[in-house]
Design goal:
alpha/beta, Rossmann fold, metal-binding, oxidoreductase, zinc, NAD(P)-bd_dom_sf
């Protein structure tokens, strides 16, 4: 089968690999679409030879082409996406339904071979039906669940003001979810004017480029008393600092973006957490009980219902044979891009 494998930093080649066979409790999926995630972007460019041995890719959808002997409820020809986490199901965290906290987990596309391969073994319990969604659309289920995991922990959002820092794929999806949940003002912050235009198209009511005007000033002017919720998706240090400043008293700050550099708060900046009694929520992955969780069925439903629209976020599409070109678009960063999709 065809598979895309890193061959050194920022170099990806399509090779031939042996086609896998499903175990008794697994299915074999013929992958049709797989999105490039931010974690894939990091792994292709970091100095870690491990990524020369693992086929990446975990945002995928495809068709079931083989079914293990003990699998029930799924058959050859069914169309599906799947949760990439494979928790141990033995530890106390798994018993509590906190699968994202499992320390003995495996993961499709980072610990076992992933969906930038033409065929993929998937545990049947991980499967998610995709209804009438296209394969490209269904590949967005996983990133939507990243947004839903912390948002579903919040109280009623009707009429609330929110700030979304970072208008990449996750931030743009979060904007649509907040709009669907009845939020009043949705402030989007990003350093890319092109991404801010996309944010407005997704439902942001106010946009801010913190290079030209601090987010704190925009929120002080546009929001009555700060944001009820701040969704931090960029991972950037300045955005995390601003998140604490623009949240209102007893507001919630959802920390979703991954940091890749040290972050230094001044004492007053950090004291904002205490003085405003903020609810700071860390969010890692996207699972709940019963596994894989309501995030997954809700994501598929929101797209089928038209509450989240992803076609405008898919800025580039490449066949797997051109996956190097796909990464070049991202690393060169000479044109506006959001989700870059790979097709088989």
């Amino acid at each position: 089968m065809r598979a895309a494998l890193r061959k050194g930093i920022k170099n990806v080649e399509v090779i031939e690999m042996e086609k896998p066979s499903p175990a008794a409790d697994e299915v074999l999926i013929a992958v049709k679409s797989c999105g490039i995630c931010g974690s894939d972007i990091v792994r292709i460019q970091e100095e870690n030879p491990r990524w020369d041995e693992i086929v990446l890719g975990h945002e995928f959808a495809g068709e079931i082409v083989a079914v293990g002997e003990s699998v029930e409820g799924w058959k050859v020809g069914d169309r599906a996406s799947a949760a990439p986490l494979m928790p141990c199901m033995k530890c106390d965290k798994c018993a509590q339904g906190n699968y994202s906290l499992c320390k003995g987990y495996s993961f499709i596309g980072s610990r076992v071979q992933g969906a930038f391969g033409e065929f993929l073994r998937v545990p049947a319990k991980n499967l998610v039906a995709i209804g009438n969604l296209s394969y490209d659309q269904a590949a967005f289920i996983e990133p939507i669940t990243v947004c839903l995991h912390p948002i579903l922990r919040l109280d009623n959002l009707l009429g609330k003001d929110v700030v979304v820092t970072g208008a990449g794929t996750i931030g743009l999806l979060a904007i649509q979810i907040f709009k669907a949940m009845g939020c009043r003002e949705i402030v989007a912050s990003d350093i890319s004017e092109g991404k801010l235009e996309m944010a407005k198209a997704m439902g942001a009511t106010i946009v801010c480029n913190p290079i030209t005007e601090p987010l704190e000033d925009v929120c002080a002017r546009e929001l009555e008393d700060g944001a009820h919720v701040v969704f931090e998706s960029s991972g950037a240090g300045p955005a995390k600092i601003s998140a604490m400043q623009v949240a209102r008293g007893r507001g919630s700050v959802l920390l979703v973006g991954t940091s890749h550099a040290p972050i230094t708060f001044t004492a007053p900046q950090f004291e904002a957490i205490t003085r405003k009694e903020l609810n700071v929520v860390g969010s890692w992955m996207n699972y709940s009980a019963p596994f894989p969780g309501a995030e997954w069925t809700t994501a598929a439903w929101m797209m089928e219902a038209g509450l989240v629209k992803v076609d405008g976020l898919q800025t580039h599409t490449f066949p797997v044979e051109q996956i190097q070109n796909a990464y070049d678009v991202i690393y060169n960063n000479e044109e506006l891009w959001a989700k870059v999709m790979i097709n088989f």
